[in-house]
Amino acid sequence: MARFVFKWRYFQATPKDNSRYVKYIATREGVEKIDDTMKSVKTYADYIATRPRAEKVGKHGLFTTEGMQVNLHKVSKELNDHEGNIWTVILSLKREDAVRTGYDSGENWRQMLRSHEQLLADAMNIPLINLKWYAAFHNEGHHPHVHLIAYSSEGKQGYLTEKGVAKLRR
Fold this sequence. Notes:
Layout: E1 4-11, H1 15-27, H2 44-50, H3 72-81, E2 86-93, H4 95-101, H5 106-115, H6 117-123, E3 131-138, E4 145-152, H7 162-169
Antiparallel strand pairs: 1-2, 2-4, 3-4
């Protein structure tokens, strides 16, 4: 059985805390610095979409629901202005498990996430119509993985229980 790493966290609806985390992941030791001309709106979305080994889908690596184009600047502004909780997830496999299961390519991760939108909405107690999610595939040498951001377009709507997390892990 593949060893699957599943890290789930959320930002509470406090812009001060959100900006601290974004600053941490953007400036920590070893991070590759990127052009900060949009620094007033940079978010976790910018980090996952533009870091090295992010598989690009157009100009960056961010993707969402099938057929929807992602404007990174618009998403970052929306995240900065969002007053509700924002959940972040990292889904990772060891390289050998990713190869064996077919999750060593961004296309397979995109298909899997898109096919499980309803499950994500149900687990987070957000009506599918209000679910907003974005992800990026990072083809790291020893552990290909996906970063996922999810939240409700309706402010403070949504919550995640232990049962919901267990449902998502499966």
